[in-house]
Design brief:
alpha+beta, Aminopeptidase, 13-stranded mixed β-sheet, 13 helices, Acyl_CoA_acyltransferase, N-acetyltransferase, BcerS-like
């Protein structure tokens, strides 16, 4: 049967938005490892009022076969990204489709054609919708539930994407370690040596001053990450919107600042793995029964994700990274319920992050790939 591609107005049309969201739920409904996002959060992300769209232009496509929606893709012209990198890259994301290469090909063709019409020269993804959110195709580490805000897909995704001419742009790594794992002496000594200096201290965040704390993180984030591959400067509205979403699952003891002379110079964010709760809400709805799983969260969650860490460039020789890792691990271990820690994601070529993690006896156990293709 022929495959028909329909361009839909997800950002402004409620019915189109529901169709776009429903496709993922239908494709993964029988997969025991897939974790559905809350529909209320997806609806928020796919509305024109979301701050991401203030600096990006997007198009949404749905693949139809035998009268059924069987795939979807989002094409993205990220103005912030292209301006920062002085590039002409078209991005793609939110790709989900049945195991049919013709469906993949039809979706990619539609999204690539749209990007080409805007003068883009390269096609790269997946970004959902940028590196500041979720990104990468899972290519190693199947057979387990993904952690909070990490991608998941069937194994056939990589095969179909590569067969359509896409090649590796960058791999992202996820590390795992047991909470009971002792920090190596070298990390401990560097942290303790740094803390002996009167100018260096650390503290946990305060939810009572959440807005002020987020402002400090925002200032550090863009400075700390701007030299990394794929970096996209976050607008203040974007950063604050994401922080507001995460506040409900955040634990003050697991988010730390490192200070130099009383000035916040770096931070680390560790979040309880709320995916262990969402996994038990297959329809993605809090009502009528999903809310009861949320109330059980303290009993369901036994893992933590170290979601991000950043130190301002001018403070990178102060040993702040070791302080943040050491004290965050100490605080996580203070909870008997947390058995597992994932540090993700880490660029494969970021030696400043990968080397310390290996010294900490963390194991790279999942790999995600960003794919690229030249646009003709």
């Amino acid at each position: 049967m022929a495959i028909y591609i329909e361009k839909v107005d997800v950002l402004n049309d409620k019915k189109a938005r529901k169709r776009f969201i429903d496709i993922q739920f239908e494709i993964y409904k029988d997969d025991k490892f897939w974790v559905p996002q809350l529909r209320m959060e997806l609806n928020k992300l796919f509305k024109s009022g979301h701050p991401f769209y203030n600096t990006a232009q997007c198009a949404f496509y749905i693949a139809i076969k035998d009268g059924k929606d069987v795939g979807r893709i989002m094409a993205i012209n990220n103005h912030n990204y292209n301006k920062f990198h002085n590039s002409k890259e078209g991005h793609w994301g939110f790709l989900d489709a049945i195991d049919d290469i013709k469906v993949f090909e039809s979706l990619f063709n539609a999204a690539a054609e749209w990007c080409s019409s805007l003068g883009m020269e390269k096609f790269i993804g997946p970004f959902n919708p940028s590196t500041n959110y979720e990104c990468g195709t899972l290519i190693k580490g199947y057979g387990e539930i993904p952690v909070l805000m990490m991608m998941y897909n069937y194994e056939y995704y990589q095969q179909h994407i590569e067969s359509l001419g896409f090649t590796k742009a960058m791999d992202l790594l996820a590390y795992h370690m047991k909470t009971e794992t002792q920090m190596p002496e070298v990390i401990k000594k560097i942290a303790e040596r740094a803390e002996k200096k009167e100018s260096i201290t650390y503290r946990c965040v305060s939810k009572k001053r959440w807005q002020e704390e987020i402002k400090l993180m925002y200032e550090i984030y863009n400075d700390a990450w701007e030299e990394n591959w794929g970096f996209v400067p976050m607008t203040k509205d974007e950063f604050f919107a994401m922080a507001a979403d995460l506040k409900t699952v955040a634990d003050e003891k697991l988010i730390l600042f490192a200070l130099v002379n009383g000035v916040e110079a770096g931070f680390i964010v560790c979040l309880p793995d709320f995916n262990q709760v969402l996994h038990k809400i297959p329809n993605g709805k809090l009502l009528p029964t999903g809310i009861f799983q949320v109330l059980r969260a303290p009993k369901l969650i036994d893992g933590v994700r170290v979601i991000t860490m950043g130190v301002k460039k001018k403070y990178r020789l102060y040993g702040l990274e070791s302080i943040l890792y050491f004290r965050a691990h100490e605080n996580i271990a203070s909870y008997k319920k947390y058995k597992n820690i994932e540090m993700s994601w880490i660029l494969e070529d970021n030696l400043n992050m990968n080397k310390p993690l290996l010294k900490m006896n963390a194991v790279p156990y999942r790999k995600y790939r960003i794919f690229q293709k030249e646009l003709v």
